[in-house]
């Protein structure tokens, strides 16, 4: 019981000091990568991480190509 209270307090403390992240491309890439990884021998977490990195890369590439959007 005590450990769950400590974990909850730690999570609350970390959430209060975190800064908002720019997740353009990451969320969509993580969803697609997680689904693909899940169907490819149950590697959903690895697929989500790779999808996030690739999605972020393409979002940055698009932002450089079209700065007015």
Inertia-based shape: flat
Gyration radius, rounded: 17 Å
Largest sheet: none
Compute the separation of the termini in Å.
51 Å
Strand content: under 5%
The low-pLDDT segments are none
Helix/sheet category: mainly alpha
- The succession of helices and strands, N to C, reads HHH
The percentage helix is over 70%
| Overall pLDDT | 84
The total strand number stands at: 0
- Please give the count of helices: 3
3D structure, described in words:
By secondary structure, the protein is mainly alpha-helical. The chain is 75% helix and 0% strand. The longest helix has 22 residues, at 44-65. The relative contact order is 0.14. The model has no long low-confidence stretch (mean pLDDT 84).
Q: Characteristics of this structure?
A:
69 residues, mainly alpha
Give a nutshell description of this structure.
The protein has 69 residues and is mainly alpha-helical.
Annotate the secondary structure layout.
Elements: H1 2-17, H2 26-39, H3 44-65
Helix pairs in contact: 2-3
